[in-house]
Amino acid sequence: MGRRVSPHAARAAGASAGEGTLNTVLITGCSSGIGLDAARTLGRRGWRVFATCRREEDCERLRDEGLESFPLDYGDTASVEAAVAEALSRSDGALDAVFNNGALAIPAAVEDLGRDALDAIFQVNLFGPHEVVRRVLPAMRARGRGRIVNCSSVLGFAAIPFSGAYTATKHAMEGLTDTLRLELRGTHIEVSLILPGPIHGTPLHEKALAHIERWIDDEGSVWREFYESKMKPRMASENPSRAPFSLGPEAVTAKLVHALESPRPRARYYVTRMAHVARFLRTFGPPRLRDAVAARF
Predict the structure, then answer these.
(1) How far apart are CA 16 and CA 277, in angstroms?
(2) Quick check: 78 and 15 in contact, CB under 8 A?
(3) 3-state secondary structure 118-180
(4) What are the φ and ψ backbone dihedral angles of 122, each rounded to 5 degrees?
(5) In the sheet where 24-27 sits, what is the strand order?
(6) Looking at the annotation, which residues are catalytic?
(7) Mean pLDDT, to the nearest integer, of 121-146?
(8) N or C: which end of the chain has fewer CB within 10 A?
(9) SS3 213
């Protein structure tokens, strides 16, 4: 039985290439949260989804759901190469879209971030996604069309205390993605950024506690009391990411659908009220006001 292709996808294909359909997508970080919701939703909309995860056991769980899944670990160049090759092989080179979603966080004071911690987070949050893009672009160029969507963050254009490592990677992703979009003008390969504010139902904060333990010498830090009394308890709490005005992963997926299926995708998609407020302050607010607001988080 053939897959149902959504009318949105058909319109997107007509806008980008004049014929055919956009219906194959590679998504990273699908074990939970944003990636999992995106994979399930796009599958229901008629897309052929290659839903990748870092761990094979998570891939097996997704395959049990009926999704096509295989490993992709941003921190391992060989894994990225193998995963992209697998996606291109399964699609006969007709990979239409990529959604770079996976990321890690190391919440810590900037002065406590060693070179090894920064190396690790940049590998996962920037170098890995960039390698995926580099490896899919030749196939997209050959077909004369494609969609590349990178998941950034409100912290891609703003900052809050103790988010220096994550913020640095997302600022870098913004710059790299914007430059790529300019370089691909006229190729029918569209490039978009999604910038979520707080999204609940994702494991980013829960996993961050392990990264603090691994990379940060909190016992020897001048911020020791803060780590022990506030940072670690927050990371270990049952639902640390249900911040005020937070939304579920489906809010990100809604923007992803537009980025993939609209004939005129946007360069940027802001998700949650916090993202829109931060955008306003970044554009119109004086630095002292922005700092006063950011210091409250």
Answers:
(1) 32
(2) no
(3) HHHHHHHHHHHHHHHHHHHHHHHHHHCCEEEEEECCHHHCCCCCCEHHHHHHHHHHHHHHHHH
(4) -70, -35
(5) 48-51, 24-27, 97-100, 146-151, 189-196, 268-271
(6) 166
(7) 97
(8) N
(9) helix
Residue 273: what residue type?
R
- What confidence tens digit (pLDDT) does each residue in 211-263 have? 898 999 999 999 999 999 988 888 777 454 456 678 999 999 999 999 999 99
Distance of CA 53 to the CA centre of its chain: 13
The mean of the pLDDT values for the chain is: 89
Residue 33 neighbours by CB under 8 Å, 6+ apart: 199, 201, 202, 203, 204, 249
What pTM was estimated for this model as a whole? 0.88
Residue type (1 letter), 244: P
Q: Could you read off the pLDDT of 208-225 as tens digits, one per residue?
A: 888 898 999 999 999 999
Element (H, E) at 98: strand 97-100
Three-state secondary structure along 29-66?
A: CCCCHHHHHHHHHHHHCCCEEEECECCHHHHHHHHHCC
